[in-house]
Amino acid sequence: MEKLYHYLWKTGIRGARLRDVEGRDVEVIDPGIHNNDSGPDFFNSKVKIEGIEWIGNVEIHVKASDWYRHGHDTDPAYDNVILHVVAVSDKKIQRPDGRILPQVEMTFPEKLFKTYLSLSEHTDSVRCHGSLGHLTDLQKTDWLETLAIERLQQKAMKIKELWQQSGNDWEQTCFIMLARGLGFGLNGDPFEMLGKSLPLRVIHHHSDNPFQIESLLFGQAGMLDPTYHIFDEYYQGLCREYYFLARKYGLRPMKPGQWKYSRTRPQNFPHRRIAMLASSLLDGFSLFTRLQDSSESLEELKDIFNLKADGYWRDHFSFDTERKDTVSELSVASKMLLVINVAIPLLYAYASATGDYVRGEKISNLMLDLPAEKNRITRQWEEYGFQAKDALRSQALIHLRKEYCDKGKCLYCRFGHQFLRRSMS
């Protein structure tokens, strides 16, 4: 409930004229800056109490007595609080110098409270789906465009972290991102771990030997164990080669139980995706350089991801399991997903890191020319009347669902804000 009071103070209180529990006039000039860390809820607020202007911090509680229950009376961080805003004034708050802290009991329309409860108590991930029809096209477009850029910037921040962890090596960062992309969501995390576990400087020593590259990748993935009852000659050869290379480079494999196979077609098993990742390492990994040279052409970007499961993997989807009708290349839809989730975020992150914001905007606009993703999340939004016409909007809808709906951040969502504003009128 405190979150609702934070929201009301931040968005709807400026210029309001209130009375404190002592009957004094209180005018809110500036609600201040919302603090999400420890300390008072709002910094640098500005209020007038009986015509005298005060600048300081504001603390908000459901019950006034929470001030003592939370230990604020003994915390010096709260000595500069100029106003206590509460739902229930069940206790007067005394400052360290003995003065009584001004206290306002804030109320709001019952309709607003019911709207808030409907948003916070629904078990559906999209809690407001019953109200989405009240939104205008402009309100939808405005928020979705913002969400798409927010998602791209979030990815760019993650890429920057990977870049720093990789010793400021863009190719190594690109290799990790490609690995994660080949996980296609379900196995994204273990693929990222695999990419992080293998430095390109190690792989480059064996870039002319596909067998050694595969032994390094499958070994690091925790998929090679000579004690398993797999008598396939290729598998046993990989085990022997990995044992030698792991000792040479001091490598430690991942735990094998992290890979997921449920709801996955055999041709999309992690084994085949790892084989495709191995094909990108032949003759040296230079994917980031190729992305940079693509001139932001979607056709060129898509062709960069012409990865194949070759050799042994043409007719196998796991070790010792042969299947003749296996597709050896990535589908067009899969390549497009790699453009959306690997190429564009990497190019955008690089443009941001180098201060080339004009290029960054051009790269983000590429998503307007890419087809929308089709997955469980976008299909659900279609049921609620949100049709993604391009990748920019499908990325926005995915971000809205994962970062706002699933996390219950309705008070931070513009749609939720619109519904609460309507209930206050």
Folded structure, characterized:
There is one protein chain. By secondary structure, the protein is of the alpha+beta class. It has 17 helices and 9 strands. Strands 1, 2, 3, 4, 5, 6 and 7 form a 7-stranded mixed β-sheet that branches. It has a two-stranded antiparallel ribbon with strand order 8-9. The chain is elongated and about 85 Å long. The two termini are 20 Å apart. The relative contact order is 0.10. The model has no long low-confidence stretch (mean pLDDT 91).
Write a concise keyword list for the protein shown above.
17 helices; about 425 residues; alpha+beta; 7-stranded mixed beta sheet; 9 strands
List the helices and strands and how they pair.
Layout: H1 2-12, E1 17-19, E2 25-30, E3 33-34, E4 42-49, E5 52-63, H2 66-69, E6 81-88, E7 103-105, H3 110-121, H4 137-165, H5 170-182, H6 188-197, H7 200-203, H8 210-220, H9 233-249, H10 270-279, H11 287-292, H12 298-304, E8 316-318, E9 321-322, H13 332-353, H14 357-365, H15 376-383, H16 391-405, H17 414-424
Parallel strand pairs: 5-6, 6-7
Antiparallel strand pairs: 1-2, 2-4, 3-4, 4-5, 8-9
Helix pairs in contact: 3-17, 4-13, 4-16, 5-6, 5-13, 8-9, 8-10, 12-13, 13-14
